[in-house]
Amino acid sequence: MLKRFITALGVFILLSTFSFAKDAKGDSENACKGDSNNWQQLYNGKDLAAWKHVGPGNMTVEPDGFIHTHGGMGLLYWTGGKIGNCMIRVVFRMRDENDNSGVFIRIPIEPREEWMPVHYGYEVQIDNHPELSKEDEYHSTGMLYSLTKPLAKAWKPGPEWNTMEITLDGPRTVVMLNGTKVTDFKEGDPVPEKKFDFEPQHGPRPLMGYFGLQNHSDNDVVFYKEVAIKPLKK
Q: What is the pTM of this model?
């Protein structure tokens, strides 16, 4: 157990040092560019040419143009580069009244497997009823998974569409769900103690990072019809 802890700590320090050193270079490596008044669509509704999948399961594009999650746990990430000082807009719906997925943000390096993003990025959770898995409101839709408590309840059950807008403003992360602010977190804010082994490592995340969409399991099917970004207004 001690050996595993030391190894995990070493990886965390390495990734954190690497990430914040890169952050110091400023916006030169920021892939979130363009007009702050207009969304840049990252999913063309036809294929996943700008995306890459890691981990079990996969994602497909349905005839209706929606991204469909299959199996898991895996991650479909955008290969365009790291983003920061940026808004992410994700429009999704669950197949059933409730299904599980998530939007991963602030991933320090390009993912090669599914667990590094869990422990060294943040997951903006998609799960309306975490109590069914014996989890609590810190694990519900729009939360930074296991770290933040909902400011409001704004999710819609499947198969209704939900619009999630995630603002990455330096060290601050704000989540709007269907027009209502549900999360407002800044690096250094207090967080609860870990309750489960699979919860993320605590500690700082980079100002810029990769992001992606999770396929959680065979029993959880979520559809995505829009993924877009735009830089923050200066």
A: 0.89
